[in-house]
Structure formats: structure tokens, C-alpha cells
Amino acid sequence: MKKGFDEIISKVNECGMKKVAVSVAQDSAVLEAVREAKKRGIADAVLVGDEAKIREIAASMDMNVDEFQIVNEPDMIQASLKAVKMAHDGEVDMYMKGLIDTKNFLKSVLDKEVGLRTGGPLSHVAVFEIPMIDHLLFLTDVAFMTYPTLEDKVHIINNTIPVCNACGIDMPKVAPLAAVEVVNPKMPVTVEAEELTRMCEAGEIPGCIVDGPLSLDIAIDPEAAKHKGAEGRKIHGDADVLLFPDIHAGNQVYKAIVHMVPGEKNGCILTGTKVPVVLTSRSDSFETKVNSIALAAVVAEELKKRNA
């Protein structure tokens, strides 16, 4: 059976509705998303921001904002700190960006007193449901970590495993991508991919299967893997996680799928944090925002189990 966002939402319904704190909530697109998330039983929301503006926008959308808790804080920086503190203190299960620039939003996430640091680097995961692929595909990192070192890539993998587990993948297959599937000393990306594979085999990266370097076609296309004689590899067209060498490669593949693949669905979160962080763009679709809240909800449940 094909796994997709409908299954993720079903998982949320099984574990119960979560709660998200929205930083600077006076944004029509975000209000629309949280309204739909509550309607679908995914998450309730605490709206932190300028209450007068929140109510004005909600009225223009014919949205009953009285269904939600509102924390009035007109100052954007203070609103973000109040919202993230709720996540830090365990009053909510996840944290979401509203009408605040990404730089200041991330400052709240990283705040030493009320933020969501866990001691390691943060990374971004985009989860795709793609019509021609029979399972969810996890892309990382496409938006946050620019030029990850070998150590960074280990952290990225470790940050992504709980997301995969939350989505029903117990032992995710991670493909460190390169232009080629063989090690070339003149191509450092391939050398690092080989080292990640060795580390996983040695038990230094538990909870997953790593096989690299791999070209993108071998990682996701069984026919390409067959034609290239890669059927004996641990990953041959069935990768769950695509680990990109840098943000340029990741971001380009992400946008190519979004803008060129009809029928795709996706959701994105920031990981490596105390609770999942929904960091969507104003250009993201309504469905992507709702899917991102659903993804954060199942990951929040997974983190809750791990920390119990």
C-alpha cells in the first residue's frame, strides 16, 4: 500500500490532537492552515501576536477565532519569545512560524533561555509524497544547513531518523548523494559518503541503513539501478532518505519536485530541536502548511515516546 500524508494524518488521529504555538499569528495563510488543521483533528493552536490584527484578519476570512487561545503581544520579537517559551515549557507540542522574518524566528528557536536547543545542530527535513514513488521520500537538508561537514551529515541523519520512525519507517535507507556512485578521491563528497556508510556498518550511526555514494537515479529508480548493475547494493532504487551534499543540490531538487511534478504533496519541519518546528515559507501552498503541521504532530508523538 502506498504511504502518504493521508496515513500521517491517520496516525495523528490515533495519538490524539496536538497543540502548536504560532509565533506572530496575524497572517491569513497561517490562520487558514491552523483552522484546517483543527478541523481535520491534527492540532489545536495558540495564536501569539497582535490580537486586534489577528481578529481583523480572521473576520475577513469568516474564521471563528474564539475557538483558539490568543496571547496578545503586539511586539513581534516578544511574541516569538512568548510562543517559543510555551514549547520550551511543554505547554504545546510544536512551534510554528507566522508573520515574522525567518532570521528573528530562528533567534527565538535558538534562544539560550527559552529556546528549543538540544545541544546538537539543527537541520531541515522535507517529506514528499510523489505519484510515481510508492513510499514517502525524505529530503535533507534543503533549507537550513548550507555546507555540511562529515560530522554535520551524521547529525542530519540522526535528526532525520525520528522523523522517518514517526512516519512508520523503522529502519530508513539513507542515500548520501553524489554525481557518481563510486568513490573518487578528487570528489570529496564521494569520500564522505563512503565514510558515512562505514560508520553506519560499524554501529556509529544506528537505526538506519546508509549506502553511498549513490547517484540520484540509482537511489530512487529501481530500473536505473538494474540497468547500472547496482542491484547488489543495500539501496537500489528504494531509498527513503536523500542526503544532499550541500544546500544548493538539495534546494534545487526540492524546487524541481514542487514546481515540476504534478500531484506531489509535501510537508517540512526543522529538526534537532526539543519539539518539531514548522518553518514554512509564505510561498508554500496551503496544503503544504497543513501537511507540515501534521508531520510535526506525528514527530512530536515520536519524541514524546523517546523521552518517556
How would you describe what is shown here?
The protein has 308 residues and is of the alpha/beta class. It folds into 2 domains: 5-118 and 273-307, Rossmann fold, CATH 3.40.50; 123-260, Isopropylmalate Dehydrogenase (3-Layer(aba) Sandwich), CATH 3.40.718. The protein contains 11 helices and 11 strands. The protein has a 6-stranded mixed β-sheet, sandwiched between helices. Strands 3-2-1-4-11 form a 5-stranded parallel β-sheet, with helices on both faces. The longest helix has 22 residues, at 286-307. The mean pLDDT is 94.
Give the terminus-to-terminus CA distance.
Answer: 31 Å
Number of domains: 2
Uncertain runs are none
Total number of β-strand segments?
11
CATH architecture of the largest domain: 3-Layer(aba) Sandwich
**Major β-sheet, in short?**
6 strands, mixed
Overall geometric form: elongated
CATH class type of the largest domain: Alpha Beta
Query: What proportion strand?
Result: 15-25%
Topology:
Elements: H1 5-15, E1 18-23, H2 28-39, E2 43-49, H3 51-60, E3 69-72, H4 76-88, E4 94-97, H5 102-109, E5 123-129, E6 137-140, H6 150-166, E7 173-176, H7 188-201, E8 209-210, H8 216-220, H9 222-227, E9 241-243, H10 247-260, E10 265-271, E11 277-278, H11 286-307
Parallel strand pairs: 1-2, 1-4, 2-3, 4-11, 6-9, 7-8, 7-9
Antiparallel strand pairs: 5-6, 5-10
Task: For the structure shown, list the relevant keywords.
alpha/beta; 5-stranded parallel beta sheet; elongated; 43% helix; 6-stranded mixed beta sheet; Isopropylmalate Dehydrogenase; 2 domains; 308 residues; Rossmann fold
